[in-house]
Amino acid sequence: MFTGIVEEKGRIEAIADLGDSIRLTVRGPLVVSDAGHGESIAVNGCCLTVMGQSAETFDADVMKESLDKTNLGELVVGDSVNLERALPAGARLGGHIVQGHVDGTGRILDRTPSDNWEVFRISLDGDIAKYLVDKGSVTVDGTSLTVVEVVDANPSWFSVSLIPTTLEDTTLGVRKPGDKVNLEVDILAKYVERLLGHRLAQQKGESAL
């Protein structure tokens, strides 16, 4: 479990092709300072398992499913990535509940600067657009953000406002229009959908009796 508060910008040191998967070597001195084998670290919002580590780097395998559904397959050596360790018990929940299970990807459509923030518009798949609401939470490349506006169009898109600290402390500051970003919607929305679906099905069955 994560919060979407990026702790460190890491760097891809090596990528090994394992056939139907890859092994990433990621430099992140802060996140590996107390990490152990088998622990979880979110890389661009994707929960990965530490397979090995050194004083400043860790290795993690990325399976085909993750390569297909995230932007990790597009990484090259030298790329920066957002890193966050798993949430320890009793810690403050500074962002929102993030699983590290990427629901899909979007593309940055444009960036509009202002005096004290910058507005990003990001496209999203119609299958996950229904889970976003104005002023709700969304995770973009592992960063917890507040949705400003959701527009059902072709393609559907949403907007977020990023303060200077977020632009500086995460990789979103160097993202440009056309870049692919990982998206995770609020898990609470999916629970509500499933519960309501079961309830409606039950009511339909009762009315048919």
Can you give a write-up of this model?
By secondary structure, the chain is α+β, with helices and mostly antiparallel strands. It folds into 2 domains: 78 residues, Elongation Factor Tu (Ef-tu), domain 3 (Beta Barrel), CATH 2.40.30; 90 residues, Elongation Factor Tu (Ef-tu), domain 3. Helix content is 18%, strand content 41%. The radius of gyration is 18 Å and the shape is globular. The N and C termini lie far apart (43 Å).
Give the mean pLDDT: 92
SSE class: alpha+beta
The strands making up the biggest β-sheet line up spatially as 1-2-5-4-3-6
Count of β-strands: 12
The tally of helices reads: 4
CATH architecture of the largest domain: Beta Barrel
Give me some keywords for this one.
alpha+beta, Elongation Factor Tu (Ef-tu), domain 3, single chain, 4 helices, 2 domains, 18% helix, six-stranded antiparallel beta barrel, 209 residues
